[in-house]
Amino acid sequence: MRNYWALLPAIAVCVVLIxxxxxxxxxxxxxxxxxxGLFQQHxxxxxxxxxxxxxxxxxxxxxxxxxxxxxxxxxNVSLNRESNGCYQVAQAWGAGDSEESRSDPCIHMLxxxxxxxxxxxxxxxxxxxxxxxxxVEGNKPKYLRWxxxxxxxxxxxLVIGVVGTCSLDVKVVEYDEKIMAVYDATEPCQPGxxxxxxxxxxxxxxxxxxxxxxxxxxxxxxxxxxDSWPTVLKKLVTGG
Length: 240
Fold this sequence. Notes:
The chain is of the alpha/beta class. It contains 6 helices and 9 strands. The strands form 2 sheets. Strands 1-7-4-3-9 form a 5-stranded mixed β-sheet. Strands 2, 5, 6 and 8 form a 4-stranded mixed β-sheet that branches. A hairpin with a 4-residue loop joins strand 5 and strand 6. The two termini are about 15 Å apart.
């Protein structure tokens, strides 16, 4: 997958250089003013003598530079959280692992269904099973906010992920006693490198109804999602 952590050394150098100037300036602007004056061949008279107004302005500039340094680190962490999170979720749904798809997982490996929404009647006599589903309740999956063609974040109850080319033939039928999801085709869906996310809105709450597939076989309930911010920061600090 795209490895934004590789940018960290360059970002670290920028941050260190910024802090070497900004932190002493915040403490005492005269220190950095004197230090910079050492590199001038012909310092102007009174250059190192700072008025209260200039002291204030230098401290404000230093504060902005510290914020910029923090923003650089935060931006890098955010990009990694997005990319790595989409990769992990796509793998949980059964996506492949080609080099091309790993270049940007949130685009090439995971997306909301462009065709097919699970509606319609089952037409095949011997449909194929669908293996996994995710219930959307409480703390809703954060990855749904990041993928392209994302489904409505609030208006869904179930999520079913299948290989992208197979999403058109997935049918989800709601009964009073169960929810049934099948791949309405004579041959099983072939593996692929990308996963299409079907968002399912039920007519009534799921409750205790089981989610099953062909022959009333229970589907596997999974709960993939992106790492939380504390987890990402912990990995950043520990190298995990």
